Amino acid sequence: MTAKPKPSPLFLGIDTGGTYTDAVLWSEAGGPSGKVLAKAKALTTRHDLAVGISGAVDAVLEMAGTDPAAIKLVSMSTTLATNALVEGQGGRVALVMIGFAEGDLARDGLKAALGTDPVVFCPGGHDVHGNAAKLDLSGLEAALPELEKSVSGFAVCAYFATRNPAHELSARNLIRDRTGLPVTASHELSAKLGGPRRALTTLLNARLISMIDRLVAATEGFLAARNIAAPLMVVRGDGALVSAAFARQRPIETILSGPAASLVGARHMTGIDDAVVSDIGGTTTDVAVLDKGRPRLDPEGATVGGFRTMVEAVAMRTFGLGGDSEVALEDGALNPRILLGPRRLVPLALAGLMHGEAVTSELERQLRAPNPGRMDGRLAVRTGVPERLAAGLTGAEAKLYELIGAVPQALDRLLTSNAQNATLNRLVSRGLVHVAGFTPSDAAHVLGRQANWDAAAARLGAELFARRRDGRGQFIAASPEAISERVLTALTRLSAEVILETAFAEDGLDGAATVAHALVQRAVDAHPGIARLSVALDRPVIGLGASAPLHYAGLAELVGNRCVVPQDTDVANALGAVVGQVRVSAEARVSQPKEGLFRVASGESVRDFNDEAAAIAAAEKDVRAIAAGRAKDAGTDSADIEIASEYRVSTVEGQRMFIEAHVVAVASGRPRIAV
Fold first, then answer.
1. How far apart, in whole angstroms, are the C-alpha atoms of residue 585 and residue 103?
2. Cβ neighbours of residue 312 closer than 8 Å, sequence gap 6 or more
3. CB distance 185 to 128 below 8 Å
4. Which residues 6+ apart lie within 8 Å of 649 measured at CB?
5. What is the mean pLDDT of residues 179-184?
6. Which of 21, 449, 520, 655 is in Cβ range 3.0-4.6 Å of 500 for a Cys bridge?
7. CA dist., res. 145 & res. 175, Å (int)
8. What is the distance between the alpha carbons of residues 103 and 645, in angstroms, rounded to a whole number?
9. Where are the alpha helices (DSSP H) in 27-109?
10. Could you tell me the sign of the dihedral formed by the alpha carbons of 111, 114, 115, 116, in that order?
11. What are the tens digits of pLDDT across the range 448-469?
12. Residue 104 contacts by C-beta under 8 Å, 6 or more apart in sequence?
């Protein structure tokens, strides 16, 4: 009697985006690309992420009629970290700088990223060879009692910590012992030199910990409640998978997680090896390039929200342009242009769906006014995050936050001065408050091209926006339909601009960004000047995102090549989350502080050798062991490890002089699945 073949394991992919949470159930069976068995969407619920996750996953399980126990791996991607950096959100953290001067804050955008968050400077640090200066943590120790009341975590960066992390470890241990709060040390995130940029990366990581922790906890809680006993993986910014526990400690590495997963999904769905991939979501548009089937990586580190980090990720350019982008009007122009983003608003259609009469009654009241108001069509509502994340508010912020509740309130009644508007923006930046207003998603509802939310609220918002006046005092549009068409046309045109600007940047013309931008605008407009311009991509565009079929319908003629929108484009991120591999790396450096002495800095250890070959062998052994350990922590039991070494040497009077060696181990493998 022939034994029945075992059923193929099922994989559950989840993508938690700014607006929607997607879920997809996928099986390796069904052809070279496997098979999507079911897919579903639910609104992302920022106050309690488990609600949105359960909505999407329950729908998928019901569609497929699958026993949850048959799921052997769960993997998720997320745009939460990316969106938080683009929108300037995150917890309030304290930055501890060891061995740095206050002037170092002015480098690499660190001061701008720090904002009003506290910073503590301590003497200490190391030199390029790992030799220590005297460490003094007394200032930090004295500041901790007050800091622990007003911050959600700490970021620690010491001078040349990548060559010797001892002082970061001392500070980290002190903070953990005294406060119990999360601490990120810079050497844990990057082995690259460049203290201020490493400090920036560490600061952003510390800000994101509570957000990613909530996401992972919500997902784990949901899986346990559904009896899904499968490993949980998270997509990193380079497209690799890591375990949820790994991602919790290093959330900065999940910036561009969603976009990276979308690239993996785009290649998987289309089979196209060379393409420009443009993924439009609610908050951002993410553009990247596929070469020979693999995404281009950015060796200098990912740039998100204007900050250049030390996180190796896909060479992705992220623009604040999406279906939920804020719609604004160019100031002072006779024929003002429609401006979109970079801030995300809660679409009025969505606010109307969630809050009904509380939204529509305020919009109707504003329409009855004889003249348009500056704050028409705008409402504020609490996000519903835990109260502890509101720690450290100023008096003005706390007073306004108290007035804003769980039901949207019109800004023309809530705010009484321009100063309060700035205060509201700070609450939005902290992730404590949402502003609802007119967006491209509302425009799509007005025109009947989207129908999942409250079209009546969207139309009221469009009417209010159409009543705004141009430089001649005339209404900017004759009807809600007319302004909605203008908004959607602007979104398609801006999408073409960001795609072409990315292409210019990938061709090495990023330094001439202003000129490139002007040329792109002229080409996209088919400007009838003396110098006529046209521009075309050398490869197709793969359009991703639930709204891609709508917003990219007219894209091909603007970019000079075809635009492919795959069948499952709406869940590309969730699909990409389950077809990837675990990939981690470890680095060591061998230097020569003085002739005949070879110093190996690897992981958290520093050792000296009297022989170059012995030092290199020790470095290779270290990175192999570290990479194997990280691969196991990241979620694979079958990692292949490759080691590469790069040497810096010079020749003096015909003699080879060793300067430095850089040893890197890369471990990769498929994630472990439940038995």
1. 33
2. 237, 238, 297, 298, 299, 301, 302
3. no
4. 656, 657, 658, 659
5. 88
6. 520
7. 10
8. 35
9. 49-64, 80-86
10. negative
11. 999 999 999 999 999 999 999 8
12. 97, 110, 195, 196, 199
Q: Which residues pair with 373 in a beta bridge?
A: none
Cβ distance 377 to 365 under 8 Å? no
Q: Write phi, then psi, for 454 (nearest 5 degrees).
A: -90, 100
> Does the structure show a pLDDT above 80 at 307?
no
Cβ proximity of 384 and 46 under 8 Å: yes
What's the one-letter identity of residue 644? A
For the purposes of burial, counting CB atoms within 10 Å of the CB of 452, is it exposed (0-12), middle (13-18) or buried (19 or more)?
A: middle
Reference 155, options 255, 250, 257; nearest CA is 250
DSSP strand pairing (241-243 vs 232-235)? antiparallel
- Alpha helices, DSSP H, located in 447-479: 455-466
Q: What is the pLDDT of residues 575-587, one digit of tens each?
A: 888 888 898 889 9
HSE-CB at 584 with a 13 A cutoff on CA atoms is 31
pLDDT score, position 512: 42
Residue pair 36/568 in contact (Cβ under 8 Å)? The answer is yes
C-alpha separations of 499 from 289, 492, 496, 541 in Å = 10, 11, 5, 9
Alpha-carbon distance values, 398 to 152, 288, 436, 567 (Å): 17, 41, 20, 47
Q: What angle (nearest 5°) sits at the alpha carbon of residue 407, between those of residues 401 and 412?
A: 70
Q: Is 48 helix (H, G, I), strand (E, B) or coil?
A: coil
SS3 label, residue 295:
strand
pTM for this entry: 0.70
Orientation angle between helical segments 49-64 and 195-225, nearest 10 degrees: 50
pLDDT at residue number 340:
93
